[in-house]
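Assemble and predict.
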Amino acid sequence: MREVVILGVGMTRFGASELSMKELFSLAAGQALAESGVEPGDVEGLFVGQCLGVFEEGQANIAPFLGAELGLPHDAPASRFESACASATVAIRHGALMVGAGVHDLVLCGGVERATVMGTSLATTTFAMASHAEYECPAGITFPGVFGLAAHLYAAKYGLGLAELKRCMAEVAVKNHRHGFNNPLAQFRKEITVQDVLESPMIADPLQLYDCCPFSDGAAAVVLADAARFRNQVAQPILVAGLGQGQAGSIYAQKDITLSPARQASIRRAYRQAGIGPAEVDVCELHDCFTIAEIIATEALGFFDFGTGAAAARRGETTRGGRVVINPSGGLKAKGHPIGATGAAQTYEIVKQLRGECGPRQVEGARIGLVDTLGGDLGAVCNLVLRRA
Amino acid sequence: MEGLPLTHARFKEGLAQGRLLGLKCLDCGAWTVPPQATCSACGRFRLEVGQVTPRGVIRTFTVIRVPPAGFEAPYIVALVELEDGPWVLGNLLGLDPDRAGLDLIGRKVSVGGRLRPPDQTRGGAQAAVLTFNLLD
C-alpha cells in the first residue's frame, strides 16, 4: 500500500444547528480543502459518513448532493457510508485504502448528521434501529439501554459493586466535560461535578443523563492524499499509519459485550500495520457515547487490563499527567455526537493534536494518536492510527 | 444450502405456539438461538431445527426509562444465557422495574415469547419478543 497522508481537516461547531446537512458539510469540507491548499476540482473521490438523514431531512442518497454542492468533478465518485456511529471513520478508512491502492491520489472524506431536528422520541427510536430489527428492537432496547446492560455486566463480573462503578463512570463524565471546556467547537463548554452526574435523571439503569452523550448536529471533513505526490503540499502532513475495522453483530451473539470483540479485532490490525502497541499512543479520541463505553474501550484498546479500566479512570490515568490522554476534545460526551460525523471529528482532533495546534487542551509532544469509533451495539468498530509524518 | 433451516417467520410462529425453536449444528453440536443462516459457534451451514430448553440464567439487565416510540417505560430488558448455551435478549416480566437490582444477575428464568402489534416503521410486520420470568 502507498503511504497516505492527511493534508487538512475541517469541522463545524457541534450542537443544534439550523443549517442543512449540505450546508454543514460544505463548511467543514471548505476548511479542510483550504488547509490542504487544494480546490474542489482536485478532489478525486468523496466518501462520507451519514446515518439517519432519511428521518432527519427526508434526504436519501446524500453523497452526490454533497459532491455537487462542493463542485466536485463528475468523475469523482461520491458515496455514503452507513455504519451507525462509526460511519465517518469507515468512510475515512475507505478513502485511505483507495489512495493507498493507487485508485485515487486525493480524496475528501468526512461525515455529517443533524440529529436534533428529530426530537428525543424519534431520535431514540431511530438510533435504536442500529440494533437487530428482529431480535433486539422488539424488546424495546435503546442505545443507553445497551450500555446499561454493559455496565451491570461489568459491575457483576468484576465484583466492583454498583456504587463504586457509578462513581468511576461519573469521573469519566467530569473529565470529558473538563476537557471540552477548552474546545471552542464543543457542544457543552461547562464543567460538571460527580454530584451533578449522580443526581441527574435515570435514562437506562444504571446510566443517568450525564453518563450519556447528547443528540447533536455537525460535520467534519478530512483530505487524504498520496504521500509521495502531496507530502510537501502542507507544512505538517499527518501519516495514516494503521487502519482497522471489525464486526460482531448483535449483542446477544457477542455474549459478553464488555470484551468488545469487534474492537479487539480492529485494533489488533491497526496496531500491527502501524508497528506499535498501546504504550506508544500519546493521545486517543475514543467512543465515549456513554461513560461505561469509555471504560470498556480503554480496556479493549489495550491501555488497561480487562476489569481495571474503571479504577484507572477514577485514578486520573486518562487525563493529563496520567497514562494516556483520552478524549482531549471533550469526547462525544462534551463535544457532542452527530453520529455520522463523529469519526471525522475524532480524526480532526487527533490531527490538530499531532500538529500541536490545540492551545489549552494540547497534549504536549503528542507524536502518535489513535481514533476509535464504535457503531451500533458494539457491532462495528473502526480504528485509525495517525502519526507525525 | 437448500433454503434456510429456520426462518424468522417460523421462529415467531413457534413462539406464538409456546415453543422456543433453535438450530443444532450437525458439525459442532452447538445451539444457535435465535435462528440465523450459520452456526453461531463454528460458522458452518449444516443445521437442524430443534426445540430449545426454555430456561436460562440472567447475565445482565437494564431498566429502560426513556423508551422508543410505541413502548411504555419503565420496563426491564435482560440478556439471558440459555441452558443450551446461546445468549438471548428479551423482557423480564413479573417484577417491578424499580425493584430491579444487581442481585438479578445469576437468577434463573423461564423463557417464553409474545407477539407485538404491527409497527409501521418496520414494514408493518408483527414482531416477536422473548419474555423471561423468574423461577426461584
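The CA atoms of residues 63 and 100 of chain B lie 8 Å apart.
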